[in-house]
Write a structure and sequence with these properties.
This protein is an alpha/beta fold and 540 residues long. Helix content is 47%, strand content 10%. Helix 6 runs antiparallel to helix 7.
Length: 540
């Protein structure tokens, strides 16, 4: 349950739950239809990605995947929807920014334990959308406006850009060294000595001021050494001249609006950038054995990058994908979700309300440690979600791109739970996280130009039916040949229901001795007709 500051219940995801799926009609034949981009209306006549927008116009046609409604579960989903209400931003892009910012701000305390590895709230996000219609920057603006209201110190000191090299990133959060402490101590002692030797009051006052400032710096550096050894930080600005960030604070949210530039830098000969970004996601200490030999202990660095699919495909290398850099990113496809000539700023009262709520989530979450799962959530994870996260087994470039689906699902579920002020991960949080990683898989398919539904099990069935030709496959054949008998009836029902939402796939009921047999098939002509209609700007 989500509670407001006065103890009342916050309108949560229930207002956006229950979007009707396209279920088979009672007829014997289910014709091939388009993939899941049809109007998806919520209860009460509300619409997330179709229908009439805030300006009274029909929402733009969406040429890519549509997130399922559980993605917007809980307070973070409500914030994303409200911040995007009078904007052209894609709500799922706004949500991704909020999740990444919260996970970074919370620091290294909250985590889930998978085996012996601690997974913290570090979320690397790759926002993928067209130059003209993606509204990538609008998503960032809407989300960061809220973050600045809720967490002004974090927004000012810890959100930055300009990622150019692994060495530069390490230097920006490097540990305080003994040499640095001694250098400041020596300056402080010198200033005290000059103050004692000064004959004029004005000169003495100047040296006293300098000595006091250096003493503050020395205390801060000594505290930073102690704090860094424990992996913690003080949640305030460094009280020294220049207003620098507390050096024990290793949180950084790197917001790169031109990710293509970063990719080019990473491809330079001798660049360590890709390797350091992988280490950041893993949460391991950062270090390079060069002349400076700087080290950053206990880093907590998240990345958000914007790019178009075309530019990404032009720049990405095989080593980027197979080497593990981009399977550490959560790809989020975005597209303009409304047509508003003069978007209005978000309502100040609404901004204050969500700002207080986000601050409350932060104040609660930053002191947490390990989050476990309820018994029901453990069962859901073991029996349904974890098997679905284990790839299609086809070793395609898309599978290489999304091999970290399972740990990402757990990280996201943890953040959904923290936003709900829950003491453990519940089934609803796992379902929300799984819906988001499914959407990320479908987004990755758009990014790299692969054919995918966003669901590994569904991809296996689609591939089998395409290979089966006109003969198709019965439900029993799918169970035995595709899943080797390891798929429960309920899970298969869900997979086959969503199969019928993919372009070119259909089902016919054939009479038999008992009940009619469900026979599934793929019609390439129907799929091509749908894609042609999309290219013309419409849909079937």
């Amino acid at each position: 349950m989500n509670l407001s500051e006065d103890g009342g219940q916050i309108p949560g995801p229930q207002a956006f739950d229950g979007l009707p799926n396209l279920k088979p009609a009672p007829d014997s034949y289910i014709p091939p239809i388009g993939r899941g981009r049809a109007p998806r209306k919520a209860k009460g006549g509300l619409s997330l990605y179709s229908g009439i927008g805030a300006a009274g116009k029909q929402r733009p046609f969406r040429p890519g995947p549509v997130p399922e409604d559980p993605v917007f579960t809980g307070p973070l989903g409500r914030m994303a929807l409200d911040m995007s209400r009078d904007s052209e931003a894609d709500p799922v892009g706004t949500l991704a920014h909020l999740i990444a910012a919260l996970g970074c701000a919370l620091g290294r305390g909250p985590h889930v334990l998978i085996g012996n590895q601690e997974h913290r709230g570090i979320i690397h996000v790759l926002i993928a959308g067209a130059t003209a219609d993606g509204r990538k920057g609008t998503c960032a603006s809407d989300a960061l406006t809220l973050v600045r209201r809720a967490l002004p110190t974090f927004a000012q000191n810890n959100i930055t850009s300009g990622l150019s090299s692994g060495e530069g990133l390490i230097e920006s959060i490097a540990d305080v060294t003994t040499e640095q402490v001694e250098e400041v101590r020596e300056k402080w002692m010198k200033a005290k000595s000059k103050s004692e030797e000064a004959s004029k009051d004005t000169v003495r006052d100047q040296w006293d001021f300098a000595a006091q400032d250096l003493e503050n710096q020395l205390k801060t550096l000594e505290a930073a050494v102690q704090a860094a050894s424990q992996g913690r930080w003080e949640d305030n600005a460094w009280a020294s001249a220049g207003g620098k960030v507390d050096p024990s604070d290793k949180r950084r949210l790197l917001r790169e609006s031109e990710w293509g530039v970063t990719m080019r830098r990473a491809h330079r000969q001798g660049s360590s950038l890709s390797g350091v970004l992988r280490q950041c996601w893993d949460g391991s200490d950062l270090a390079l054995l060069n002349r400076s030999a700087r080290k950053a202990s206990f880093p907590h660095v998240a990345v958000i990058g914007d790019i178009t699919p075309k530019e990404f495909r032009d720049l990405v290398s095989n080593s980027d994908v197979s080497g593990g850099t981009y399977n550490r990113f959560l790809t989020i496809y975005v597209h303009r979700n409304d047509e508003i000539a003069l978007p209005r700023p978000v309502d100040p009262a609404l901004l204050d309300e969500h700002g207080r709520r986000l601050r409350d989530i932060y104040d609660h979450g930053r002191f947490l440690d390990e989050l476990g799962m309820t018994p029901e959530a453990r069962s859901e994870w073991k029996d349904l979600i974890y098997p679905a996260c284990n790839g299609s087994g086809s070793n395609t470039s898309l599978d290489d791109f999304v091999t970290r689906t399972a740990p990402y699902c757990m990280r996201l579920a943890m953040l959904y739970a923290i936003a709900d002020h829950a003491d453990a991960i519940h089934v609803v949080h796992l379902k929300a996280a799984h819906a988001l990683v499914r959407y990320a898989r479908a987004s990755a398919a758009v990014l790299i130009g692969a054919a995918s539904s966003g669901d590994a099990r569904l991809d296996k069935v689609m591939g089998a039916l395409m290979n089966a030709g006109t003969a198709g496959m019965s439900r029993k054949e799918i169970t035995v040949k595709v899943f080797k008998g390891h798929c429960s009836g309920g899970v298969l029902d869900d997979v086959l229901e969503r199969l019928l939402q993919q372009p070119g796939f259909g089902m016919v009921k054939q009479p038999g001795r008992g009940r009619p047999t469900q026979h599934y098939f793929y019609d390439a002509d129907a799929a091509q007709a749908f894609e042609a209609a999309e290219d013309d700007g419409g849909g079937l």
